[in-house]
């Protein structure tokens, strides 16, 4: 499987397998990690921008409720977030803001402890508002919180595809395996994509991938697909400090080329079959 993509500046329109925008809703891709700080939000943001650049209509949902920071990486300052949907009188449409390349961004709110620990009534209200939300975009990228909790598992289960982000660090590997184990044991998904971030080189990326695939293959009934790897690249940290995604500031960097390769791979394969009611409907069924 390809580990190193071509230059990001190339357009892949000819290879795009565009998801049908059926009544079931957009193609839902959830990005998750077992451990925080491994680059999950950075991948979500830059993957969303890359897909938008390729001609797809993309919504980025920051589902790290109460600790959302995707808008920070995009240099956006949304006036409202899901907090105002839950505790105010706003709708999802009213809090959605437009980011670079026309992507739609839904903020999960920041600094709100009650958002991270929703009670039954608030969760039901949020689901009702999601159900009313008519997302007409081609792709929905869900940036989840790190770790394993009911919110994270609900979003992962409702999504058609799941990307797990991991670094070569042993703690990251251990936590990523724990998350994959839960998805396998509860039969949430039969396969997931894996992205190795901050690898020192191709060999370390392959070694990290092999570790996860070997252990999962021995003990779990889940397929680990290689989506690609992102090398340690100083432009990533610089972009975060500038609150400008590296796919915009450094489109020819190795990190941008890696993300472009992942977008190419994702858009070149048919999305998972739509579930009845789509992402929002399935989320209602899981959380309801």
Automatic annotation (TrEMBL):
CDD domains associated with the record: FlhG-like
Name the GO terms of the biological process aspect: negative regulation of cell division
- Give a GO cellular-component term: cytoplasmic side of plasma membrane
Residues at which ATP binds: 35-42
Provide the GO MF annotations for this entry. ATP binding; ATP hydrolysis activity
Enumerate the InterPro entries for this protein.
Answer: FlhG, MinD_FleN, P-loop_NTPase, ParA/MinD_ATPase, YlxH/NBP35
Query: What domain of life is recorded for the organism?
Result: Bacteria
Q: Which residues cross the membrane?
A: none
Query: What keywords are annotated for this sequence in UniProt?
Result: ATP-binding, Nucleotide-binding
Q: Which named protein is this?
A: MinD/ParA family protein
